[in-house]
Sequence to fold (402 residues):
Amino acid sequence: MQLARRMDDIAESITLAVTAKANALKKQGVDVVSFGAGEPDFDTPGFIKEAAIKALQAGRTKYEPTPGTVEARKAIAEKLKRENGLEYAAEQITISVGGKHALYLAFQAVLNPGDEVIIPAPYWVSYPEMVKLAGGVPVIVRGDPANNFKITRTQLDKALTDKTRMFIMNSPSNPGGHTYEPSELDELSYALARFPEVWVCSDEIYEKLIYGDTQFRSWAALDWAKWKDRTITCNCLSKTFAMTGWRIGYTAGPKPLIAAMSKLQSQMTSNITSFCYPAIVEAYTNPQSGVEVEKMRQEFERRGEHMWKRLNAIAGMECVRPTGAFYCFPNIGALLNKPLGKKGVVSQEAVAFCTAVLEEAHVALVPGNDFGFADHVRLSFATSMGNIDKGLDRLAAFLGNG
Ligand SMILES: Cc1ncc(COP(=O)(O)O)c(C=O)c1O
Fold:
């Protein structure tokens, strides 16, 4: 059987093997504590659900314009103005099937074969694969854990070449849990200013989940060098409003880019699910939204602090304090190449380590390999405090800290 050559270029996720094993154990009745979730454990606020239910009952079941209804695009434009200080017309916004689809369309719309795309590591698993699918060449720049995984202007300067076509900024970050301060974005922008043909793709899906005195700023809001004209701002409702299953994402950017993305989408999926549009309007116009989002944010902050402190109390684990998103990403380098647990299993990298932890301690962690860091593991704190303590008690005992 012949498959397309492009299938050879995309990597199989190694993370999936560990997830499959965790699921198999659960099926056998084993009580596995999972830190794998990449989604809020809260339900979507009721008034947002109601808006979709009402629309469905009113017969909103037909095709809609591919980039979305004017009302929904306007609600997003108003949100961008109110919360991000960005002025966009409705035609500068297109709504797609989750943040993932938004990013995929953006890469397809601007990349040509051989174009280099600078991706800071640790990175969200899909960036390099999506870049390759668009014919681009991922150029990975490794953030130093000592600098909270953030890359520096000097590093970016070194990575930029005449072939660079895009720079991806994901802040707050999955999996690093770090957030670039506005001054740090400024620093990076000075390096990019020398290359006016380079797009910045700013993945802002965790913008509302920031902790302590961390400040969030949209890349397009950088107030010099007309950044808005070459920034692709991708966002979604998934993480902010606990709506991962709804599949609603959007992009704001220059008109020709948005038109190109919409043209592509028109040959792929057409509009998103019709009765979701009123839910978007509700999410961005109901004053109760801010209250609900803040409640979830506060709970994530409480859990994140707790998990981070507990991880750092385990000998051999070193964790950067999360300032955004809902992930801790500890270094396990000191635990590799030595016997661990009752069986004395020796792991050389994170997948083997996670497999050993899962098999003996029944705790599911996500290995950092797919994020570009094979000596780190990711733990999501989008789970209850009770689960966090139960899982970390087991992990500590497995590592001889019990
Ligand atoms: C950094 C980042 N970007 C994009 C996405 C995709 O978002 P969505 O679920 O809306 O497709 C995710 C999902 O986990 C993510 O972590």
